Amino acid sequence: MKKHILICLLAFLFGLPPKLFSQTYQLSGNPVNTTGWNLVSDAVVSTDFIRLTTDQTSRFGAITLADPITLSYCDKWKVEFDFRIDGNGTAQFGRGDGFTFWYLANPPTGFVSGGGLGIPANASGLMVGFDIFNNTTEGQMSKVHLLYGTNNTAGNNIEFNNTPGSTFHSPDLIGTIPFVGNTYKHVEVNGETDLSNPTNWIIKIKIDGVLIADQSFAPSGGAVGMSQGYFGFSAATGGASARHSIQNVKVFVDKVPILSNTITPFVCTNPATGNGVVDLTSYNSQFVNNPGNYIFTYYLLGSSTPIANPTSFQYSGNTTIKVIVKDPTSTLCDNGDGVIQLNPTPFSATDATLTGCNNNNAGTATFDLTTAAVTTLTGTTKEFYPTLYDLNNGINQITNPSAYASAAATIYVRVTTAQGCVSTSKITLNIHPVVVVTDTELKSCPIEGNPSMASFNLTGAVVSQGGLTKKYYPSLTDAINETNEISATAAAAYVAPTGVAYIKVFNSNGCYSIAKVALTVLAPVFSRVLKDKIICMESKTTLDAGPGFKSYEWSTGATTQAINNVGVGTYWVKLKTGDCIALQTVKILPSENPVVTNVDVSGNTVTIFANGGMPPYQYSMDNIVWQDSNVFPNVPRGESKVYVKDSYNCTPIEINITVPNIINVITPNDDGINDVIDYSALANKRDLEINIYDRYGVQLFRADRTNGYKWNGTANGRRVPTGSYWYSVTWNENNKTNTPIKFSGWILVKNRE
């Protein structure tokens, strides 16, 4: 059998989708499924096996495919089946005859006598017989016969066919592998192209794993050049008898998967020459996936010579091309079922329409002219022109057809097929309606703690009508270029200062317009009457935010316009205007107490000097009667208190003062009467300092601890002349502020002359 035979047989047998690599045609199941097969004579389905003959003499049975199979282009194949030959036999001849697996051009259709194992006379093809009757000795045997040719020997008995190179006869296997028995035996028949002689097959036959045959066979007789036949099994008993059964039939082939058997592409002929040129290889991907993995050969139907120039094949009329797909790894059988049918037809491009978007009301749309449906053919070239005049004269060709900006217009295109056929058509450019948008404004309350920022709901901005798609961007450039898009989630709470954002609005056609959204952070509205206060530390006051606010919320928990009886501290109030809340802080500060900076005592007149607090001050010697003057005349000698308060009328400050009891005249004559001025009563004062000056301001004496704070009218150990002298006494009172006291006056010194 030529290697061309088997692949087509198996392709037909399997009937599986072409994308599957492993293909199998079977006789299996319980009961056995015989769809696609014909049962001949005695052959019947018996549960899970096919019984070819009953255990009687002169019986015949066969099973064959219902349709003939064309075999071609296969390098490897494999057949597996199980057989059983059993029964009682006849008294005279024992059991006979045997059965055959075959591929025949003329399979049996009726009774065939037993000598040829159910194979008709002059049948041609591949026959593998399993013979149990020795026609020479009329005894039982177990032999395998193989004939790759024509069954034309005497008696149609392949046992006696010895065509050189086309036959095989095994030794008698009855001692090791007896064919007759109650159990099934498993058979494997493998075929592979003999690379040293590609018309031959290397056939391997195994029974229950034992290799029976392994050699190269050449086709002979009617098997040479055989192109179609039938696959099947047959058995006959002749003068002896046996029951012949088969089951679990499987025929395997791994064939290059093919997607389509016939491709009829559009082709045309050039009117000028009457011929067309086509690249046959351009259709490879329509036959198989991953065409680069295979080798393609192309033949004119009926020719055995490959087409030499498949990439530029010239034709003129209807032409049928046979396509052979080969796996270079030899893992898969060749597939010769592909056909390219070339039926030249006049070529005519069709008019088309493109509709584009007038995005953002730009006045033009950008069209991809190359997408216009002017032809369904692939491999064409197109030239686009703005006018028919330009096309006819080959001028002003559009150089950017995939991004052509234009208003509504008519464009002309020249289409040239791969075969050189030319046709022209027009493309009508239409403009979708403009997406109508309206700029708008969003105002939002400031964020607490960051009054320059607010959260805006961009998704709620009404910029268009209807259910259009929207995208959000921080700038116009971003909206145009679709960069830095704000997600819908973020747009619902977009935090920004006063400024703008942009919304790109798309309709169902994908057209868009861009709307501007002005963003305004509302200024917080504060109370104009609520201001910081200064009160006495021990006092209470009222804080009033004033009327006109939607609601009030104080830090004290109060929700009234004013809060009463509040003391020194810091407070806040949330003032709501519309939907916005302004947080306003107010302080109640303690007043600053005035401070007595110094006290001047001149004789019995006391002058108080104060600072700090809030002038004007009031003064008192008894904390009952108050005066605006800081001068107190006729203050008695000794310890007194002075009170000072400022305009806040808080608890007054209190200081102690001392008006010394000093004698204004001394007569230092040592008579023990008015001999000295005694300042010792002031010895407990802090920083006590006593000085005596003459009328020119020259210091004459300093009283201190060493002289007992006394002056006896001397200076530098000598009596001073009779006259008036000035004294100045200063100290700091023992109080919190160490109030400085200054006491001054005059003294008359009378000395004896």
From TrEMBL:
Entry GO MF terms: D-mannose binding; hydrolase activity, hydrolyzing O-glycosyl compounds
GO biological process annotation, one example: endoplasmic reticulum to Golgi vesicle-mediated transport
Keyword annotations from UniProtKB, A to Z: Membrane, Signal, Transmembrane, Transmembrane helix
Keyword Signal in record: yes
SUPFAM superfamilies assigned to the protein according to its UniProt record, in alphabetical order: Concanavalin A-like lectins/glucanases
Tagged with keyword Cell cycle: no
UniProt subcellular location: Membrane
Stretch forming the signal peptide: 1-22
GO CC, one annotated term: COPII-coated ER to Golgi transport vesicle
InterPro entries cross-referenced by the UniProt entry: ConA-like_dom_sf, Intracellular_Lectin-GPT, Lectin_leg, T9SS_type_B
Membrane topology label: Single-pass type I membrane protein
Sequence ranges assigned to domain L-type lectin-like in this UniProt record: 33-148
PANTHER family: LECTIN, MANNOSE BINDING 1 LIKE (PTHR12223:SF28), VESICULAR MANNOSE-BINDING LECTIN (PTHR12223)
Protein name according to UniProt: L-type lectin-like domain-containing protein
